[in-house]
């Protein structure tokens, strides 16, 4: 048999390897962000009401859910700004409802430089860290039934998938639901907001007697009614998630798409959204990535934060992570490994959508939460969106006869400079331990850690806390 020359054999081997081996598939990213969804409203995270979020619960069953996940700041645009930049708001420049003017890396341009097709559905203004964020595809809330029509999301999502395929690129899709943000489903506020627009109804609307009242709110008839409207909006959100996952499956993309689900902050009720309580920043963070993230897994150990989102996406896509960001990728945790430095989280608040400044800083670990309210002086009163609905009005009326509710109103309005809570015993922050001598050492220790963090991160408020 005639021997094949070595150079020819090498060439044939190279050709064979090139034709048989496939290029590694680029992972797609689908990020579903709910608007004002409390972590405890999701069944997989302990909601005692049955079957409110079956599709979100199924996503959790197919991936990993985090029991210690927090957004960086509990209000829309700054929360999303931290996701997009990986930086704390006072460092990114997105402390309120405005864009950054700083020349810093942010997610969309970095993904596009690495070959991604980037689309966004709803909440475009709030989810774009710069006014010139170069999305490839945009459909805002008006085109999506005010961000509440699952079938319109289906149509637009398919457009993004088709355009990414036509361009030969993997996609990054930030899919934002406007549920369960106010105005709630079926509420008077909703009817007044869009009197001439037919809104898609949820698959189930709840009655006041069906809802569970969180412990940080009093159980009053008007509050139950508003919670029923809120949970009807949560149900409509879950209906949307079902459609989104169906599109991925029907398009054959579920195996090669990392799906993340989270909320931008807590529910728009007193003692949740636009604050630093556990119910303000804790978020129902779920990650599904077949073949990479163990299905049905629960992480009880690691704290993850909104600033960690940006580097995690980049590392999952095998892309370089820019220098100068505050967050750290938790891809290692998703792969089932332990990661040091995740025993606590730092959260903040700066200003409301009405541009009222209420600076707060918080440190939380598994046991305790410490908050420093720079604005609390006994004279300035707190005002936020949660006071616009039935709940606050009902609390004020009931407070005329019930001292316990009157005290809650007073505390919400004026606070104290420092707050400390035992989150194992009191996750709803009902018993402020500041002033209790048994917890004086713990308060001092956590305040010291907060000051150290502020110094290390060049927080401009640090001089006011020492």
TrEMBL record:
Keyword check for Glycoprotein: no
Keywords in alphabetical order: Hydrolase, Signal
Domain Sulfatase N-terminal as annotated: residue spans: 28-316
SUPFAM superfamilies (UniProt xref): Alkaline phosphatase-like
Record Pfam families: Sulfatase (PF00884)
Family: Belongs to the sulfatase family.
Protein name: N-sulfoglucosamine sulfohydrolase
Species annotation: Parapedobacter indicus
Lineage start: Bacteria, Pseudomonadati, Bacteroidota, Sphingobacteriia, Sphingobacteriales
């Amino acid at each position: 048999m005639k021997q094949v020359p070595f150079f020819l054999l090498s060439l044939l081997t190279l050709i064979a390897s090139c034709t048989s081996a496939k290029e590694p598939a680029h992972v797609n990213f689908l990020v579903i962000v709910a608007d004002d969804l409390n972590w405890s409203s999701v069944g997989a995270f302990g909601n005692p009401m049955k079957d409110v979020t079956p599709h979100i619960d199924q996503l959790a069953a197919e991936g990993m859910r985090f029991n210690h996940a927090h957004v960086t700041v509990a209000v829309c645009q700054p929360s999303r700004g931290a996701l997009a930049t990986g930086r704390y708001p006072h460092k990114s420049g997105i402390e309120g409802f405005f864009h950054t003017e700083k020349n810093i890396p942010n997610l969309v341009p970095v993904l596009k430089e690495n070959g991604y097709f980037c689309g966004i559905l709803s909440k475009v203004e709030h989810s774009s860290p710069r006014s010139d964020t170069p999305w490839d595809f945009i459909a805002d809330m008006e085109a999506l039934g005010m961000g509440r029509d699952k079938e319109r999301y289906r149509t637009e999502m398919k457009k993004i998938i088709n355009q990414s395929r036509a361009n030969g690129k993997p996609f990054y899709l930030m899919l934002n639901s406007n549920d369960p943000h106010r105005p709630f489903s079926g509420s008077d506020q909703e009817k007044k907001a869009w009197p001439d627009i037919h809104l898609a109804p949820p698959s189930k609307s709840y009655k006041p007697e069906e809802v569970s009242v969180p412990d940080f709110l009093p159980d009053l008839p008007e509050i139950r009614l508003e919670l029923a409207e809120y949970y009807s909006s949560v149900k409509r959100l879950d209906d949307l998630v079902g459609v989104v996952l169906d599109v991925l499956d029907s398009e054959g993309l579920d195996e090669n798409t990392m799906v993340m689900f989270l909320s931008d902050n807590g529910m728009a009720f007193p003692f949740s959204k636009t604050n630093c309580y556990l119910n303000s920043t804790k978020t129902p963070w779920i990650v599904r990535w077949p073949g990479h993230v163990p299905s049905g897994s629960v992480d009880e150990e690691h704290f993850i934060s909104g600033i960690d989102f940006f580097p995690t996406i980049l590392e999952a896509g095998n892309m370089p992570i820019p220098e100068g960001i505050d967050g750290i990728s938790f891809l290692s945790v998703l792969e089932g490994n332990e990661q040091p430095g995740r025993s606590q989280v730092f959260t903040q608040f700066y200003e409301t959508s009405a541009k009222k400044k209420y600076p707060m800083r918080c440190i939380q670990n598994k046991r305790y939460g410490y908050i420093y309210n720079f604005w609390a002086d006994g004279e300035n009163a707190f005002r936020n969106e949660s006071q616009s609905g039935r709940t606050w009005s009902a609390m004020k009326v009931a407070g005329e006869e019930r001292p316990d509710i009157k005290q809650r109103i007073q505390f919400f309005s004026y606070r104290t400079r420092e707050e400390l809570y035992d989150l194992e015993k009191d996750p709803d922050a009902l018993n402020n331990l500041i002033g209790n001598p048994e917890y004086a050492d713990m308060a001092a220790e956590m305040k010291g850690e907060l000051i150290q963090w502020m110094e290390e991160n060049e927080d401009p408020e640090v001089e006011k806390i020492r």
